[in-house]
Amino acid sequence: MSPAEGALPSLAGETWFQAAPLQKVLDLLNQDGAETRIVGGAVRNSLMGYPVADIDLATTLEPKAVMALAAGAGIKAVPTGIDHGTVTLVVDGKPFEVTTLRRDISTDGRHAEVAFGTDWQADAERRDLTINGLYADRNGQVIDLVDGLKDIERGTVRFIGNAAERVAEDYLRILRFFRFFAYYGQFRPDADGLRAAARGRDKLKALSAERIWSELKKLLAAPDPGRALLWMRQAGILTEILPESEKWGIDLIPALVEAGAALGWEADPMLRLAAIVPPDPERLAALATRLRLSRAEAAFLQAFAMAPAVKADLAGTALDRMLYRHGETGIVTRLRLAVASARGAAGGNPSAMAESLQLQHLLTRAEAYRKPVLPVTGADLIAAGIAAGPKLGEILAQMERYWVERNFTPEKQDLLSRLEDFARRI
């Protein structure tokens, strides 16, 4: 029965709730007057029909007591955030974050000083969003102290209590507000939350780059981040954290989401990032440094920025040569963005639809590409009488150019038969 019909729902019948590792933890931490409940994402996702991955728990037990009980039961306990009340219990390889009920004593927008307690209402009210403030007790009964169930039904992403106060407690909540809207929100963002986020945007500078990129990357991985990005842009949030997007725009995102759904692409946050920033190597290198992207992520952006644009009428053999010279990553990224743009512009226009199909054909070829290997090596040239040294390298480079220009068809003997010609050109 839904909450609108007067009864709070139960999660007792859910497969994830019945799993032995969770039941073992709940049995351990609900005895001798202690109470432990499931909290946050697992409850929210289960109620909304989304998969449940991580399971977090809140408890009236203090961290040392949780550690002691775990030790007595032979359960591995890791003090992952013990100063803030969090201990991770690992049962049969499954981790459970267990955090003591707490209230904030003071905050500075980045960190909070907390006090442990046993007040469930106070614990709920210190959380960020109503849909994240739901509990399920030992029996699976959902407990709602912040009107989160109503917001789940309405698809509303709303801060608990005073939005400005929740934001001031941790300015990362600005980005979390839009990230959760991207995944769970309907219609438009909550007005109070949007206003608090816009007013607090300049405080995002105080946050670590890692925290900002982590939230932005999760948002970009949403099935459809388009509306969230639009509202972030209108509120000045996107320009604050990603100034490279200011004059480039986010217009391609809806077409990219549609193309991805139609063509079976995974929701790739790096591809979506490439869609909203200019292909400028210098600016993207600065972006990668500022947001502290991983080496692989930074390399992806550089490959995208350095790759040439691909026209729809490009011959397949010319595409192969381009892939050989520039690598697959950047070319495939460029083609995916071009396919999305062409599909978005096609409508009922026959020529635009034809361009889209041509680009898709090139993309298929690029995705299947395997870089060929030059059939001649330095050892072959030495065996043919060329001394090791700079001249050998230059001859090999000439052979490679000749081979590439002829679409990788000349074989080893053909290349070696032209050795004297190559040598004379040096």
Describe this structure in words.
This protein has helices spanning 15-18, 20-29, 41-48, 63-72, 120-125, 148-154, 163-169, 172-184, 191-199, 209-220, 226-234, 237-241, 252-263, 269-275, 281-290, 295-306, 316-326, 328-346, 350-367, 378-383, 390-405, 412-417, 419-424; strands at residues 36-39, 55-59, 76-81, 86-91, 94-100, 102-107, 112-116, 134-136, 142-144. It is built from 23 helices and nine strands. The longest helix is centred in the last third of the chain and has 19 residues, at 328-346. Helix 17 crosses helix 18 (328-346) and helix 18 (328-346) runs antiparallel to helix 19. The protein is of the alpha+beta class and 426 residues long. Mean pLDDT is 93; it is low at 1-5. It has four domains: 1-154, Beta Polymerase, domain 2 (2-Layer Sandwich), CATH 3.30.460.10; 157-241, cca-adding enzyme, domain 2 (Orthogonal Bundle); 249-371, no CATH class; 378-424, no CATH class.
Which properties best describe this structure?
426 residues; alpha+beta; cca-adding enzyme, domain 2; 4 domains; seven-stranded mixed sheet; disordered N terminus
